[in-house]
Design goal:
The structure holds 2 protein chains of 2 kinds.
Chain A (H helix, E strand, L loop, with lengths): L6 E5 L12 E4 L9 E2 H4 L2 H4 L2 H4 L2 H13 L5 E6 L2 E2 L7 E3 L2 E4 L9 H5 L6 E3 L2 E2 L4 H8 L2 H13 L5 H9 L2 E2 L7 E3 H21 L11 H21 L5 E3 L2 E3 L7
Parallel strand pairs in A: 1-2, 1-4, 2-3, 7-13, 8-12
Antiparallel strand pairs in A: 4-11, 5-13, 6-7, 9-10
Chain B lengths: L3 H11 L6 E5 L5 H9 L4 E6 L2 H7 L5 E4 L7 H5 L6 E5 L8 H11 L5 E7 L17 H10 L2 E9 L6 H11 L3 H11 L3 E8 L2
Classes of the chains: A alpha/beta, B alpha/beta.
């Protein structure tokens, strides 16, 4: 086993704490981290700034290409600068997530991020009061999710039945990017998301004000959650480490 | 040419569903375009054809017709079609002067979810065409052409308009010299009149 599997930490802006050295920092949008990868330097300005509606997925599309070019095998990990899936969560459990002060990150050992290097580590699936579609509509605009899943069907990524069951179900894995998974899962899932996002942008994208303009990223998150859950089920639910996400925040407990 | 009914259905089914815009490279009789439009009435079709008479005919079934030669148009021409959902060549790729260059230019502007579908005549078909196209390839040559143009072939269909005539089969048997696996390979190579190739950008 490679003692330090590839592990990427995505950030869209500077932050005040230090990530472990084994991680490759990834700057999305116009953020250029001190080390690592900056989308604004790797992509055209237009592509880099498409994070306006694609969020972190612009970086994930690029990382997928890099992993293929490097013929990467084994596992790959991802976190956000303030959101992690750890084998041993830190902080205090609050609703579905652990809340921790950034200083607590110093207590986290590398193996808490990637375990034994050959077991998937993923966030828990969260159950909502309403359906996935209702939960989406409560936050942004349901029409976007319906259109996005329609495009996923047209792209051959999911079936009609899968879409119907998922959207009317009550659970999904929030922040499914934050995970340690086989490279093959990542490459396949992100490939499918890029296809659907591309078709959706051409056919159905609608500009929305402010935060809601990241509609494609929100829809990608739901579809990614479905595609990840499908692979977890095939791998064996009991052979996967599923933990509540750890969120960092300056106002969170420092134990 | 094979019977339209025999190839139109599989060709139509390989095209992206419910496209906003499809680009047809070279005019044809419109059979495929009409079959696709029947399934997806809201789809738009643009034909690119250099020959004025054929371009005029294409106006009967296409929403837009560009009278242009894909071999000589500029990169800007391809760029303006970057929003197309797919391109298709119905036995027209082999008529291009530089098919590799045409494929490469299309591939450069295609979004990742789109595709190129091409029906291409099989050079090894047992019956030589009366008017040979500008280029002739066997399956391996087609795959090399697409790969060399930055495209990844994701599926292919053999179009077999009919069984081999007895005398052709006898000739192949003789050629195989009693080797059954060689005979099967020879039949497989010579029977298809065309191949349907679906390719996507290698990105």
């Amino acid at each position: 086993m490679n003692p330090t599997p590839p592990f990427y930490c995505i950030a869209h802006a500077p932050f005040n704490w230090k990530m472990p050295d084994f991680m490759t920092m990834v700057g999305s949008g116009d953020y250029v981290p001190e080390t690592g990868l900056a989308m604004s330097q790797l992509l055209s300005p237009e592509e880099a700034l498409s994070n306006r509606y694609l969020g972190e997925y612009v970086a994930l599309f690029e990382i997928r290409r890099r992993l293929i070019a490097e013929q990467a095998e084994g596992f790959v990990g991802f976190c956000h600068y303030r959101r992690f899936a750890l084998t041993d969560p830190i902080g205090v459990l609050h609703q579905f997530n652990y809340h921790a002060h950034p200083d607590m990150l110093a207590k986290v050992r590398p193996e808490h991020f990637y375990g034994d290097g050959q077991t998937p580590i993923v966030p828990i699936s969260v159950t909502w009061a309403g359906s996935v579609l209702q939960q989406y509509e409560a936050c942004v605009t349901g029409r976007d999710l319906l259109m996005f899943f329609g495009d996923a069907i047209d792209c051959g990524v999911i079936t009609n039945l899968e879409a119907a069951n998922f959207l009317s179900g009550k659970a999904f894995i929030p922040a499914p990017t934050v995970a340690f998974i086989p490279v093959q899962w990542f490459v396949e899932i992100i490939h499918d998301l890029e296809l659907v996002a591309s078709r959706y942008y051409r056919h159905h994208y609608v500009y929305r004000e402010g935060y809601a303009d990241r509609s494609i990223a929100f829809c990608c998150e739901r579809l990614q959650a479905f595609l990840l859950a499908k692979r977890i089920a095939a791998w064996g639910q009991d052979k996967v480490i599923q933990r509540p996400l750890v969120l960092l925040g300056d106002t969170y407990p420092n134990l | 040419m094979s019977e339209p009914a025999a190839y139109i259905a599989p060709f139509r089914d390989l095209l992206p569903p419910n496209a906003r815009l499809l680009v047809q490279a070279g005019a044809g009789d419109g059979g495929l375009a009409r079959a696709y439009r029947k399934l997806y009435p809201a789809s738009g079709l643009m034909v690119v054809e250099a020959d004025p008479a054929l371009a005029a005919q294409a106006r009967e079934y296409a929403d837009r017709v560009y009278q242009a030669d894909l071999d000589s148009v500029s990169a800007a021409f391809y760029q303006q079609l970057a929003w197309a959902d797919g391109w298709y060549f119905d036995a027209t790729l082999e008529q291009c002067q530089q098919p590799g260059r045409v494929l490469q230019q299309v591939g450069q502007v295609m979004p990742v979810d789109t595709c190129i579908i091409a029906r291409i005549a099989n050079r090894s078909h047992w019956q030589a065409p009366e008017t040979p196209p500008q280029h002739q390839w066997d399956l391996a040559g087609m795959l090399t052409l697409f790969a060399g143009s930055g495209l990844r072939v994701i599926s292919g269909i053999l179009l077999n308009p009919g069984p081999l005539p007895a005398e052709v089969e006898a000739r192949l048997r003789e050629q195989a010299g009693g080797d059954d696996s060689m005979l099967a390979a020879l039949v497989e190579a010579t029977q298809p009149s065309h191949y349907l190739i679906k390719a996507v950008p290698e990105r």
